Amino acid sequence: MASSSWTDVKDIALVEAWEEVYTDPPRQGQRGLWVRVQQYFPQLRGSDQGRTVDALSSRFRVIRLDCEKFERYYKFVDDSS
Questions:
Q1: Angle made by CA atoms 62, 65, 71, in degrees to the nearest 5
Q2: Which helix (DSSP H) or strand (DSSP E) does residue 70 occupy?
Q3: Can you state the angle between helices 8-22 and 29-40, rounded to 10 degrees?
Q4: Omega into 42 within 30° of 0, i.e. cis?
Q5: Average pLDDT, whole number, for the chain?
Q6: Checking phi first, is residue 49 left (phi over 0); if not, alpha (psi -120 to 50) or beta?
Q7: Distance from C-alpha of 10 to C-alpha of 12, rounded to nearest angstrom
Q8: Where would I find the beta strands (DSSP E) of the chain?
Q9: Rounded-to-integer distance, Cα 1 and Cα 20, Å
Q10: Model's pTM, two decimal places?
Q11: What percent of the chain has pLDDT over 70?
Q12: How many CB atoms lie within 10 A of CB 70?
């Protein structure tokens, strides 16, 4: 059974897997995209097998929301200068 903890290394591997799959056709809808991410993810450094499609997509959603939040804050500070 895979560990439920996510490390920075695993987060980076997840983003790399998503980027590789997202930019490489064919696109098969959201579920198909995450199935392909799940297949590619174990090949990357620090990643582990056993992560479900739902676990991968949920973690990616957290990362994406954190990045969007940072971008909004950065824009606010930049626009205030």
A1: 145
A2: helix 53-80
A3: 130
A4: no
A5: 87
A6: beta
A7: 5
A8: none
A9: 26
A10: 0.80
A11: 91
A12: 10
CA distance 5 to 46: 12
Q: Name the residue type at position 38.
A: Q
Would you state the structure tokens that stand for residue 17, as one six-digit string? 């897997």
Name the residue ranges covered by the structural domains of the chain: 8-80
Tell whether the model's pLDDT for residue 2 goes beyond 50: no
- Quick check: 67 and 61 in contact, CB under 8 A? no
Largest Cα span, the chain: 50
Measured distance CA(24)–CA(70) in Å, rounded: 27
Specify the DSSP class assigned to residue 43. G
